[in-house]
Structure formats: structure tokens, C-alpha cells
Amino acid sequence: MSGIYIHIPFCKQACNYCDFYFSTNLSTKTLLVNSIVSEINLRANYLPNKHLNSIYIGGGTPSLLSIPELELLFNTLSKHYTWDITTEITLEANPDDITLTTLKNWQTLGINRLSIGLQSFNNNELKWMNRAHTAAESVSSVKMAQQAGFNNISIDLIYGSKFQTQKSWQHTLQTAIELNTQHISAYNLTIEAKTALGNKHSKGLEPSINDELSSTQFFQLINALQSANFIQYEISNFGKENFFAVHNSNYWKQQHYLGLGPSAHSYNGTSRQWNVSNTIKYNLALHNNTSFFEVEALTVNQKYNEYVLTRLRTIWGCNTTEIEKLFGVTTLNYFLKTIKTKQNFITQTHNIYTLNTQGKLNADGIAAHLFL
Fold first, then answer.
1. 20 to 30 Å CA-CA from 132: which of 78, 111, 301, 337?
2. pTM given for the model
3. pLDDT tens, 169-182?
């Protein structure tokens, strides 16, 4: 299976917590789309499997692209790859970009899944985040998408901010559940150094994250969504049956994917590569036919570490049969030896090891302990 990710870095305004690569200068939007078209053609042979099971257009805010710009990207992809009605085609969208007209146009292009960045149902919190939409638009955008016929919708939520209490978070979760979407991604707020939030925090203008409250809200999240028939198939991702995100699951299952656009990453089973995180440099490189990415050939140890890091976050877990097949019996023995020291955080079902609820709070640290 193969997937394609297209990174559209443009945003109307900068969210105060975001450390992804983005740009609020929309004047180069058309130029960037043309550059991505060039990259699609240049890297047409990167994926050995030409049939796609996922296409994901993320960002940034790809819902800012015009229909002709999106159409150009799909038409170019179709020259080199095939897909069918079972292929998951996702567009990330902000509530304020969603209208019935845009929804119908997206459907015409073949987009069959929306990932809507709601983040919160609290207007004060949205304003503090510097989001461009209101709580009312959060709700209406989802209902509008459902009215237009989208039956595969994911929404994003953030917990852990200074605005949230256990009671307000429970209300947020109930509101999200009542929207009756198929998928919910919920992320614990983090303070990153090079963000507006990080800058204010360093000056004492914003409080630190209350880790104890965030942990409580994480358990609230799990309990509320599981009661509403969502399955926590990855630490931050909950889907109803048959609605797990195909594209993101490709990442966690070490499937091959091609990343297009500035800052996008790619993986072909033997190496990783990542594009320059600068739109101007990316455009210039594609225009001048010069290098715009770096490549790292992966060692067996790196592949094992990535396997542990990603699989341990999911319901598929670390499979000892797979570990022996992929990395050999010596590595398997090392895994079995080290995993025993984390038994309080692990559930074993036959030959598969997954994190229990407490373990999910410490996933990165547990994975690091298992690394070669």
C-alpha cells in the first residue's frame, strides 16, 4: 500500500501554539502549487506501488486552495498514480472556509474525507489560540459537511489549556460526540519554544501546562469516547469501527508514502527524506532544478526503533513474530528482555504487546527504554 501527503503551508493567521511549518503570506500560493506539480512529476518513481490507498492534503490550511488549484494537483497525480472509490482522500479544512459550494466542489474532485480543525467550542479559548473561527462555526461547519453528504469526518480537539477544567472538558467531549462524526483526534497542548505561546510563557505571561489536570483530561477523553463507541486505535486518535484514518495508519504501520511540498517527509522502506521547510527556498529549488530535500538511509537499528515508537502507540502493538522476521532473533530477545521491565504499563495478548491506559501517558519514555 502507498500513500501521498501534500503539505500546503498557508494559513490566514498564526495559531499561538503551532510549531508546524506554515506561512501567512498567501501571495505565493499559485507559485507553490505549480512547484508541487513539478515535484510530483520529478518524483513519480519514488513509490514502487503506483496504486494509492490514501491521499492526504494537509497543512497549514489546504482549504485555502482554490478549486482550480486542487484540480491541478489531482490531475497531475493521475498521470502517475491510480486510485479508486475505496481510496481515502482527505482534505484538512478550517470551519471558516467551509460552505455548501466548496463542499460540493471538493466532492466533485473526489475528496471523500474531511479533517476539520475545530480545536475548541469555547470562544475565549479560540480567540486566545488566535483561531479564525468561532464556536458556532465549529458546530455549523460539521453539520454543513454532513448535509452535503460527507460521511467520513474527523474533528480535532485540544485539551490542557488554561481555559479548561474537568467540567468544561467534559462538556467539550459531549458536544463533540453529539456532532456524530466518525473520527476524533484529540491532542494535549504543548508549549513549544518557537511559538507565540512559547515566547509568552518564557516571559512569564502564560502559565505552564498543568500536567496532572492534563492526565485527568486524557482519562476523561478515553472514557467518554469509548462510551460513545469510538475505538482508541492510536494514543491521540479515536475512530468508529471501519473509520480509522487510513493515511495516518500507513505511518504507524511503516507503509510507504511520498510527501510533497515544503517540509513534507517521505519513506520508502529503506530511507527517509524531508523537504526544505521554507516556501521560498522550495520554490526556487524546483524552478532552478536544484536539490530541495535531504535523505537519510536507515540502519536496521533505526528501523527497529521506529517500529517500536510507532507501533506501541497503536492497538496493533509490537508483534514478536514481526520483530523476529524484520529484525532477527537477537533483536527479538532484546525486545523481550527490555519489555519485561515495563510490565506495569503493558498488556500482552499472545505475541502482541500494547500499552495499557497508564502506559499511554508515558508512551515516548517507554518506547525510548526499548530502543536499540
1. 111
2. 0.96
3. 999 999 999 999 99
